[in-house]
Amino acid sequence: MPERTASLSLPQRPDATPQTARRIIGKGRVEGAQGARSLYIHMPFCAHKCHYCDFYSIVDQQDRQEPFTRRLERELLALAPAAGSLRTIFVGGGTPSMLRVPLWQDVLQTLRMGFDVSQLAEFTVECNPESISSPLVDTLVRGGVTRISMGAQSFNHHHLKTLDRRHDPANVERGLAMVRAAGIRRTNVDLIFAVPGQSMQDWHDDLKRALDLGTEHISAYSLTYEPKTELTARLARGEFSPCDEDLEADMLESTIDVLRSSGFERYEVSNFAKPGEECRHNLAYWRQEEWLAAGPAASAHVRGHRYKNTPRLDDYLAIDDEGFAPIVDHEGPDPKRALTELLMTGVRIREGVDVARVASAAGEIGVDVFDAVKRSANALTRQGLMKADEAKWAPTPKGMSMADHMAVELMRAMEST
Description:
By secondary structure, this protein is of the alpha/beta class. The chain has helices spanning 22-25, 62-79, 101-114, 134-142, 157-163, 170-181, 200-212, 230-236, 245-261, 280-286, 313-318, 335-346, 355-363, 369-382, 397-400, 403-415, and strands spanning 36-43, 45-46, 58-59, 83-93, 122-127, 147-153, 186-193, 217-222, 265-268, 271-273, 292-294, 299-302, 305-309, 327-331, 353-354, 386-388, 392-395. Helix content is 40%, strand content 20%.
């Protein structure tokens, strides 16, 4: 959900309302459809804008939290009829833990009132070490939250300063202890490597600190320099040099080895978990399942449509189409895009992709597409990057580190027909 997107020019007359999710979702579930079983909610408030971040967020203004919450409640109730019995909910941002506790109580009540959560398997909320509190955690537990994702990024004060992260590393441990004391067992710790000036020993220290916290899931991302972020501007000004590419590659390989020795499996390119502790919500994304989305800049995948809510809080508050939000970046059902996305995410996850789904998606495009893609998959298998049989195409450990290359080869095969 990138922050930097062309904004809408929003007329205020009811007869000039821009396209909204209602045009796609309608007033309820399509007859015979199961309904989306995952829900993403975006809360945009942050204490400040970290230099590397390109997700949509705004510096918290307490007076805007309540209008946002009331608007979010209306959107959730509008979306609810299109949902099936939810299996996963994920609340991200921004910094969701910055929302005031009474407002969190309202959001959680709206979810229970509007959605069937009787089969909910996972409910994740992202938290910041500086804004998590016992009253918040107690509220989340009562609201059914089962998993907390903690944004640590690093435990090294110097590297946190480079990233413009302003929390005390000790508060990561404090926050996770608070979470477990309240009864939430499942946790994730976010880490970033290849930070300018970071040594291999520094990175090993970060991994050890995260493991010592007893988390069951670690997301380890290589630092990327996104366009129009302050970190990229600082790089262009020559304030620092990026991490050496060979060191970055060594850090990734070391991450795999260190975490495997501690019982973690690399189940997605940047995500590691103990058996059974994979993030079920993110797996829904990578498996190309359907999900609903609420809040500014939240992205959805429903009935073959992809779209994103307007990435501006002012616009989100101003336009209310029977609860539905104005959208941008809408792409309608497209068999070629659907196959592309299925393959691109399939080569990023250890479980791979079902061949039957590939064949079905390819059949919507043309008779020769599946054969071409299958030949490419077999070639990748001969290179040791993929395990291809009649049921699954899955990356090998070597292939997972070359997921982008595999995606390019499979896309090239599609284009050749």
